[in-house]
Task: structure prediction
Amino acid sequence: MTTNAELFERSARIIPGGVDSPVRAFGSVGGVPRFIASASGATVTDVEGRQYIDLVGSWGPALLGHAEPHVVAAVQEAAARGLSFGAPIEGEAELAELVAARVERAGVRPVERLRFVSTGTEATMTAIRLMRGATGRDLIVKFSGLYHGHSDSLLVDAGSGLATFGLPASAGVTAATSAQTIVLPYNDLDAVRRVFDERGDDIAGIIVEAAAANMGVVAPLPGFNAGIIDIAHAHGALVTYDEVLTGFRVSECGWWGLENADAAEPYRPDLMTFGKVIGGGMPIAAVGGRAGVMDLLAPVGPVYQAGTLSGNPLAIAGGITTLRLADATVYERVDAASAALRDAIGEALDAAGVAHRIQTAGSLFSIAFGEHDGPLTDYAQVRASETWRYAPFFHALLDQGVAAPPSAYEAWFVSAAHDAEIVDRIAAALPRAAAAAAEARPPEA
Ligand SMILES: Cc1ncc(COP(=O)(O)O)c(C=O)c1O
Ligand SMILES: N[C@H](C=O)CCC(=O)O
Result:
């Protein structure tokens, strides 16, 4: 049997850090990452044959659970017809229509056009290029601790792996590129107003996660998302609303649908980005939005964007089947599992005397250790929390067969396959994890 440790060592000799995406390396929690051999429903199994209840969900896509049989069959059937054609296929329009139709409230449909790419990074990169192309301006506004993938302009003060490893930015991004990204504190409308008052004529647009979930989960304050759209539009700038992580995970209609559930006049971002769930585990993402902006894309307009594998037939098949299956009952199951799990975590931590706050945005959640007066609202507060309690908490769960995200800065993902029995098994593992968090001590300064 090959062990995780042997594979990690072998991989690290040829792949930097032994992984193809930094957070997977267990850098901030320590130890050896599990090399996954297979996954089914709510569980993953590593190369040593050990099964874990999975709370990572491939970082979001596994809404229905792993290897959902209909999705697997659809992908297999597509594969049998050919892996990639570099030409349009019928399913692209169908998946685009499915995505666009879901983002609808009170007759408002912000997605009039959609283009598929292969990753969320490409989707947000294309979105900011479109905002610049549409306005003829250079500056982009983003928020501290939010993550939009790894394109140069958006790595400044970003969440996810940069937060995990405590990096303010990435080496290799030129000073000139960084200077074109203005970073503001999340949930601070006054800061947005001030920067637009000072530099509004030069700002192409704002990009924002629909609900922040890459610095742990930090929900937008009521009115924040609508407010930034008002401010941007008053200055002739655009807004990209990044639903790569939240889209069709927190509701049938994404975070936009949750926030606008009862709105007579839903707010309307100019562009939206999607990924993760729209491929059900296959590599696909998308940028969509107002026709007037989207039609600037080549070959209709002058903003260039392309991709050899864009609209890949296997990914399109996985996406269509996933979205067709992701109906109201799926979201009820996911919401119920998330609520039951949050309750169990809260009870275990309370019983162990560990001060904490469970941050939520729909079914997404994360744990902010330490005393907090109310929900944490920005990155500074998250960084000031007792993140050092996370590693022992994480490892105590892992030792008992529960795989939480290997970073305090990542969201926890449940799926429709996380039923009551699975939640009970996690609950049984929580007291030991809570005790480990209670015993943790801060690192020496
Ligand atoms: C909100 C958000 N935007 C963009 C991305 C980038 O997507 P990808 O990893 O597919 O490039 C991610 C996650 O990685 C994300 O969470
Ligand atoms: N936080 C990231 C996506 O949402 C985690 C995925 C990755 O970068 O590996």
Notes: Residues 119-121, 124, 147-149, 209, 214, 242, 244-245, 275, 285 surround pyridoxal-5'-phosphate (ligand 1) (CB under 6 Å).
